[in-house]
Amino acid sequence: MMRILHLSDPHFGTERPQVLTALQALAERLAPDVVLLSGDITQRARRWQFAAARAFADTLPAPVVAVPGNHDLPLFNLWARWRNPYGNYRRAFGQRLEPVFAEPRLLVVGVNSTRAGRHKNGEVTPEQVARVSGHLAAALPGQLRIVMLHHPVRAWSQGDRKNLLIGRASAVPAWLAAGADLILGGHIHLPYVLPLAGDGSRSGWAIQAGTALSSRVRENVSNSVNLILYDAGHPRGACAVERWDHGTAGFQRVAHTDLPLARP
C-alpha cells in the first residue's frame, strides 16, 4: 500500500508550534512514501520563513514535492515581486516550480498556478495544460496519476467560487482525458473531496487540504492534512483518502473516503 501525505498552506510565519510538533510525530507514525506540499508554504515569502519551512521539510521521513502558492511571492517588496518573485522559494525548495515525481506506482505532476501580476487568484495557461496532459498520457498503467497545484478546481461552497482556478474549464477535462485520477489543491484552508467529471467517459477527484500548521484556520475547522492510500496491485487500483485533524491529542483521523478510479 502506497502512502502519500498531502499538506497545504502551512504559512510559515503564522505556524502553531504545538501543531508542528504534532505533525512531525504524525509523519513518523504514518511513514509516507512521499509528502506533497501544495503551496502557501510561507505567509509573506520572506527568506527566514522559507528557511523555517525547509528545516521542517527536512525533518519529514520522505521526499517532499512542492509547488508555490500566492503567499510564496513577495507582497510588499515590489521590486522582488517583478524581478525575482520566486527567488526565496527556489533557494529553499529548488529551481523547479513545476516538479514531476515518478516511481512505478505513482506519477505526480506539479503545476505553478501563481502569477506575479495577481495578488490572490490562480491561473493556468494552454501551454501548462498541454504540458501536464503530455506527462499524464505517458504514465505507466499501474501509476496513480496526480496533478498538484495550489488553487482549487472545485468549490465546496458557493462563496469559494471566487477562489477557483482561472482556466479550469479547459484544464480539468483535458487532464481527466489524459489520465488524471486526482487533482490536489489548497488555498482556501478547508478540506474536502469532490468528484470531477470530464467531457468524456473519464472522471476523477478533487482533493483539498486545509491549513497544515497556520493559526489562520477557517470556519472552525482545525489544522488538517490528508493521507492518500493507493494499492497498485488491485485490478482497478484501489484508492482512498483519509483526513487527519489536529486536536487536544494531536492529529487524529476523522474521515475515510474510498475513491473509485476510472480504470478499464
Automatic annotation (TrEMBL):
Record keywords: Hydrolase, Iron, Metal-binding
Superkingdom of the organism of origin: Bacteria
Family: Belongs to the cyclic nucleotide phosphodiesterase class-III family.
Record-linked PANTHER family: CYCLIC NUCLEOTIDE PHOSPHODIESTERASE CBUA0032-RELATED (PTHR42988:SF2), PHOSPHOHYDROLASE (PTHR42988)
Pfam families (UniProt xref): Metallophos
Protein name: Metallophosphoesterase
GO MF annotation, one: hydrolase activity
All residue ranges annotated as the Calcineurin-like phosphoesterase domain in the record: 2-190
